[in-house]
Amino acid sequence: MPYDSEIIVIGCGNILFKDDGFGPIMINILQKYSNDKNDYYDPAVTAYVEDEFDKDVLNQIKEKFEGITLPESVQFVDGGTAAPTNFFPLYEEYDWKKLIVVDVVEFNDEPGTVEVFDPNVMQVGKYDNPHGMTVEEPLQKISEKCDVVVVGCKPAEIPTPDVDVGLTETVIKAIPEAIDLILKEIGVK
């Protein structure tokens, strides 16, 4: 799959570790409900969202996409846990205008809080992958070539190494706000 879109929205994380699945689940929601032309969303994740999310939250998610047409230049990517090593280096091959990273971020606020971060002003070590990888450095390097932001949600629980699938209620309730921030970064809200 070529990654030659102008705007890349990449979700990072692992759905097997509760809130660490925020990024990939967000990407699946964006693909499914925005009528993404590529239709790459995972039906198992979509079933989880539609069966397990509070119906009010699910309705809010669907409403976020009413009347919205995304530019052709947007591509959603589920980067999983390997994005820093396998995906981020691809910036050298493509002419991205913007990279929007969707992930959990540890910062001084309540779990479920969603914020937009500039990786160039993030404190080193603030955005560490739960699997032990620092992410600021590759994003800072990419930002020399294109605009980079992180739409981050403060996790409530990441139980690694214990497997526990499904977001906490606190993070689920943050998803509509995260959608608003992502759509704003894309330039459609």
What does this entry look like structurally?
- With 189 residues, the chain is α/β, with parallel strands linked by helices.
- Helices cover 33% and strands 16% of the residues.
- A 5-stranded mixed β-sheet has the order 2-1-3-5-4, with helices on both faces.
- Helix 3 packs parallel to helix 6.
- The longest helix is centred in the last third of the chain and has 18 residues.
- The protein is globular.
- 40% of the residues are buried.
Short description:
This protein is of the alpha/beta class and 189 residues long. The chain contains 6 helices and 5 strands.
What are its keywords?
five-stranded mixed sheet; single chain; alpha/beta; 5 strands; 6 helices; 189 residues
Oligomer: single chain
Strand line-up across the major sheet = 2-1-3-5-4
Helix-strand pattern: EHHHEHEEHEH
Return the structural class.
alpha/beta
**Integer-rounded radius of gyration:** 15 Å
Distance between the termini: 28 Å
Strand content: 15-25%
Continuous helix count: 6
Main beta sheet: 5 strands, mixed
Task: Find the count of extended strands (DSSP E, 2+ residues).
Answer: 5
**Average pLDDT figure:** 89
Low-confidence stretches: none
Shape: globular
Percent helix range: 25-40%
What's the SSE blueprint?
Elements: E1 7-12, H1 22-33, H2 43-52, H3 55-64, E2 74-80, H4 83-87, E3 98-104, E4 114-117, H5 136-142, E5 147-153, H6 169-186
Parallel strand pairs: 1-2, 1-3, 3-5
Antiparallel strand pairs: 4-5
Helix pairs in contact: 3-6
